[in-house]
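Morning run. Coffee first, then this:
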Amino acid sequence: MNKNELDAAASPEAEFGDFLRSSREAKGWRQEDLAYAAGCSPTHISALENGRRRPTPQIGRKLDSAFGWDRVFANRAIDARSSVLLEGFEKYVAQESKAEELRLFTLGIIPGVLQTLDYARAIAAGAVRRGSITQEGADDRVAVLARRQARLRREQPPVIHAVLDESCLRRPVGGPGVMSAQFDHLLEFAKLPNSLLQVAPLAIGEDRAFDLPVNIITLPDRSLMAYAESAQQGNLERDSDAVRPTLAAYYQLQGLALSQAETVALICQLREELP
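And here it is:
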């Protein structure tokens, strides 16, 4: 079978293929051996290993069975399918897990890495009801989010600055029980030594720096990346010089936002006002 030299960081498919190939070779198996054990064709294995085919949870489970592993390939397949969210998002996720600092701004909904899973499920269920994704896609969204959150709970977690537009807190999602637990989760986040939580009040009006969600990553070498979303796609900017104006705008937004103490007081007030 053809063997390409893969850059594992190039795409989720390439990362999956590189891991699959190295795992197979560590066993001393040929592609034909693995294909037989997994109940698929050697061509399928070759396409996966060369990053030409996006893995599914189904093939992930078959590969786990062949290797005698518990959800190793299945979880990696779910990660590789993270583009169920938006085109370009998988490239951001690959960099997010390496970050030393994350700066987040969202409006309308709580940012993903700060969501409870019940809140995330409620958002995904709404998308299913609107017909924009399938139930399988909704399950994938929540699974990808859980994996993202787990990766950020590493031994040396990143410093996370989060500025939430006030609309994030005032938009009811999933009912009072889900919102109450979500507010509690934000309050716990605010207590962490590596966190800064602020709310951009509606009163700042046109002085709010961003009209779309934006995430800014600082990597270990101090280089910068920025990820922004429109309704149709996400874009990861890898040029530090191009990101610096976005970082400056973020600092300006923080200057207009409530302090963390004021933010905590607002969340507590809104939690008390829940029916």
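The chain has a mean pLDDT of 90. Good start to the day.
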